[in-house]
Amino acid sequence: MIDLKELSLVSGKAAWMAYLDIYCLDADGALFDAALLAAAAAFSHCKWLTFLYVAVQIPVVSLNDDGRIVVVSKQNEVEKLKNKPVNEEKRKLKLKGIPFALTCILHKNYILADPTAEEESIMETLITIVLDSSCQLVSLYKPGGPALAYESVIQDCIALSRQRVRELQTILNEAISDMEVD
């Protein structure tokens, strides 16, 4: 999802680390799907130097003569530094293919997509399919439970996931364009 080169400050020497905590206030099934979509939305919209929604400033930094990172503050403004700052411009974080997940449960001869917590409680088997924005399979997760007898069940779940990707891409793009602030 994130091109690690985007986080690089100085090749081979320094890079940003991106952390994202997701707090679930209420869960009614398919929690992983919602959390992945929230993470994709957060990283799709963040800008370096300013995270708009949590008002955390990522500082401008420079390298000193020893090759260590120096935070540029008002006391040691850019003019006083010997070396030019390495991240002086705002820029959007570029993502490689946003992942989208769809959880399906199998109960008897039925496939149910995006189950509620109550529906998850009666399931026989759960499958989570993760596709990227070009509908390529990224991950297939099937925890314990009975083995699947038919490959067609997995193919049906992937087909449902492809349909969901198109729906979620539209929703995510609209939400992000509504939040654009320069």
Molecular structure report:
It comes from Cynara cardunculus var. scolymus. It is found in: Cytoplasm; Nucleus, Nucleolus. This is Exoribonuclease, phosphorolytic domain 2. The protein is α+β, with helices and mostly antiparallel strands. It has two domains: about 1-45 and about 95-180, Ribosomal Protein S5, domain 2, CATH 3.30.230.70; about 60-90, no CATH class. The protein is about 25% helix and about 20% strand. It is built from three helices and ten strands, in the order ββαββββββαββα. The protein has a four-stranded antiparallel sheet with strand order 8-7-9-10, sandwiched between helices. The two termini are about 25 Å apart.
Give a brief description:
The chain is α+β, with helices and mostly antiparallel strands. It is 27% helix and 21% strand.
Q: What characteristics describe this protein?
A:
single chain, rRNA processing, Ribosomal Protein S5, domain 2, Ribosomal_Su5_D2-typ_SF, four-stranded antiparallel beta sheet, 182 residues, exosome, RNA-binding, alpha+beta, Exoribonuclease, phosphorolytic domain 2, elongated
Strand-helix topology:
Blueprint: E1 8-10, E2 14-15, H1 31-45, E3 50-51, E4 56-57, E5 61-63, E6 69-71, E7 100-107, E8 110-113, H2 117-121, E9 125-131, E10 137-141, H3 151-179
Antiparallel strand pairs: 1-2, 3-4, 5-6, 7-8, 7-9, 9-10
Helix pairs in contact: 1-3
- How many domains? The number is 2
Q: Would you state the CATH class of the largest domain?
A: Alpha Beta
Largest sheet, strands/sense/barrel = 4 strands, antiparallel
What structural class do the secondary elements suggest?
alpha+beta
Adjacency order of strands in the biggest sheet: 8-7-9-10
Pfam family, one: RNase_PH_C
Protein name: Exoribonuclease, phosphorolytic domain 2
GO molecular function, one term: mRNA 3'-UTR AU-rich region binding
Family: Belongs to the RNase PH family.
